[in-house]
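Table S4 entry, Cytochrome P450.
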Amino acid sequence: MTDTADSAAPAAGCPVPSGAVRLAGLEYQQTPSQLYRTLRREHGAVAPVLLDGDVPAWLVLGYPEVCYVTSHDELFARDSRRWNQWERIPPDWPLLPFVGHQPSVLFTEGEEHRRRAGVITEALEGVDQFELARECRRIADRLIAGFAGSGQAELMSAYAHALPMRAAVQMCGMPDTGTDTEHLVDDLRISLDAAEGDDPVAAYTRVGERIRQLVREKREQPGPDVTSRMLHHPAGLTDEEVVQDLISVIAAAQQPTANWIGNTLRLLLTDERFALNVSGGRLSVGEALNEVLWLDTPTQNFIGRWAVRDTQLGGRRIRAGDCLVLGLAAANTDPQIWPDAHVGAENSAHLSFGNGEHRCPYPAPLLADVIARTAVETLLERLPDLVPAVEPEELSWRPSLWMRGLVELPVLFTPVVQ
């Protein structure tokens, strides 16, 4: 149960006051929007929270506050070595893959960040979006063929996760099938969204090993892929820099996009506003994709930013070295920007791809949209009478503070003879 941790309050000298809320439990996992409303009502736009192991942090809930944090790198920076809680962090802390400093674009700042992000941007600009859509349709057709004859499927594992995984690794120069690819994606899932019994630190280590192998292969035999373009960019990134930045690219392309697909399919199949037009309805698919980014964004929270010096935010005193978790989902539904409690899905000013200099580098959001839109449209075209196999309230969400995605999405349809 998500609870107020007065009895387990952080030790003296901790920058987070008593009354901090543990971000855990069934309430958070299944209905995080209710928790955000409670936190906003009790604490305002910036709430004191406790992460795994009762490590203190601040959850930034307000849309203006998230925009302010992400637009002022001189106050809230990305280098996690500033954190004032490192002495409390054990080597097997579950969130270490998120916050442990790496020579990655994610943790760079200033001119170095612009250099590294520029390499990624130019490498991604080399992806032909029409060709990507064709490849996604080919992958989709192959995946659908694997279950079309049975009249039933579990779409999260058989389709929503599988398609962007294959598209992402193929863009980077790996085969879209095979044991290495399957292991890579499984380890990426564990490192980003660990289930009980998983070891995210060990999984992240294995991801690095596989990407290093890919970089060595592309050094020797470059091809028309993102990895090769990064390796041969005039900026002259080292192999290890390319490895770390590729991990960021593949992780961002796979897990969030998979949940974007799954959350959109759930909306289309369970919301009566879309039911009449879902079959081949390109306009309704586009509306559903955008509405999901507002109301069920795949990346719920992002850790994080670290205060460069003592400052104020949302009426809170933020001390140098404090960790701020960006509450993207909470900010997207901030009543300050939607006073009538109606989110205008036609608006694309959501924060689902971040904001400021550290937002997803262009054209990553466009490529993610190509993958997600093609996945949803192809499935609905091939299986036009697709319906959920369970009642909407029986669907459950993954137990994750960071990602918003279904555990399973079982469906039924008329079997199709291939």
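The chain has one domain: 21-412.
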